[in-house]
Amino acid sequence: MIEYLAETGSTNADLLERVRQGERVSEGNWLVAERQLAGKGRQGRTWFDGAGNFMGSTVVEVRASDPPPASLALVVGLAVYETVVAIVSEPGALALKWPNDLLLRGAKLAGILLEREGDAIVVGIGVNLGKAPDLPDRETIALSALGPAPDRNQFANSLARQLDTELERWRTFGLPPMIRRWELAAHALGTELRVQPPGEDVLLGAFAGLDDSGALQLRLPDGEVKVIHAGDVMLAREEG
Ligand code: BTN
Questions:
Q1: Do 174 and 196 share a domain, yes or no?
Q2: Mean pLDDT of 119-127
Q3: Does residue 158 sit in the same domain as residue 213?
Q4: Is 39's C-beta closer than 6 angstroms to any atom of ligand 1?
Q5: Could you tell me which of 58, 96, 166, 232 has the fewest CB atoms within 10 Å of its CB?
Q6: What spacing in Å lies between the alpha carbon of 41 and ligand 1's midpoint?
Q7: Ligand 1 atom, smallest distance to 13 CA
Q8: Does 218 lie in the same domain as 136?
Q9: Is 40 touching ligand 1 by the criterion CB < 6 Å?
């Protein structure tokens, strides 16, 4: 079920509040807003309020039998990738960037914010369908750069179906096939990355795939492979 709102602060904040109030938000239910006046991004950033873009959130229950919850970031990234790749005809134009940004022609097309409250993980997704923000520190793009912007409600239906499918695969077949698919959908091995782990110095290195838990492996200039569990990752050719 998809509930549409004309305007709200943040669909993530709304669902977190519902969970905190003890409301049961079932998996498969979504809250989608036309406008977000206080949209939240990762690392305390704000998220662009682009009318007609996809801005929506849903909830995933953490179950004891699930793969590690942190790997949900990859699962949601794959769901967004598969939804978008079905409507993008430019070969090789789309790429996932760890942990779950989606790039189109190397610029940011979509972002994902996961926030946990008890056994519920609120999954927020923003996809630039018609408009992209001008940001000083990173390139952004909207699907309208390739042709007419997709219809927001049709996009929401496809994404909701795709996330159901990916969650079922994750729970049924486990993490290893998701990691392999994620790597195939990502930028090439060897891509130069600039990584900012929280509270640490910036690292420059080459993408060396993911480890068994889904963490990022970065090959440093001295050949050491460093495993990154959290941080902000940019393609080295991006600014900022
Ligand atoms: C990122 O910084 O890349 C994550 C962006 C997540 C944005 C979405 S839009 C819908 C949901 N509500 C929010 O306030 N944020 C997420």
A1: no
A2: 97
A3: no
A4: yes
A5: 232
A6: 5
A7: 14
A8: no
A9: yes
Task: Give 17-32 pLDDT, tens digit per residue.
Answer: 999 999 989 999 999 9
Nearest 5°: the CA angle 146, 155, 140 is 45
165 and 206 in a common domain: no
Residue from 2, 16, 55, 233 to probe ligand 1 pocket by mutation (most atoms less than 8 Å from CB): 55
- Express each pLDDT in 58-92 by its tens digit: 999 999 999 999 999 999 999 999 999 999 988 89
Sign, CA torsion 158/164/169/174: positive
Q: Which ligand 1 atom minimizes the distance to the CA of 11?
A: 12
Mapped onto helix, strand or coil, the DSSP state of residue 52 is coil
238 pLDDT higher than 80: no
SS (H, E, C) 54-118: EEEEEEEECCCCCCCHHHHHHHHHHHHHHHHHCCCCCCCCEEEECCCEEEECCEEEEEEEEEEEC
CA of 125 to the centre of ligand 1 (A): 5
Q: pTM higher than 0.90 for the full model?
A: yes
| Per-residue pLDDT at 194 exceeds 50 | yes
Q: Is the pLDDT of residue 117 over 60?
A: yes
